[in-house]
Amino acid sequence: MPDFAERLVSLRQSKNVLQRNIVEDTGIALRSLKYYEKGTNKPTSDVIVKLCHFFNISSDYLLGLSDEKRPLRSEEPAANQ
Q: N or C terminus of the chain: which is more exposed, having fewer CB within 10 Å?
């Protein structure tokens, strides 16, 4: 199963996003992002949350706990019950 670094790189490349786009939108330092992608450093929970919001992906997928790419939030408004 792919690790965090592999999943992060794969997500970024599949969305055609540059590292600088992630940095600008999340406030994560470029150097840190590069280390996460290389697998040199592990992100904090705050960074994981920022990346999940940026990619609209569940943390389970990003952390390698699931192979299912479930969105973090629904694209459709919830029906009133």
A: C
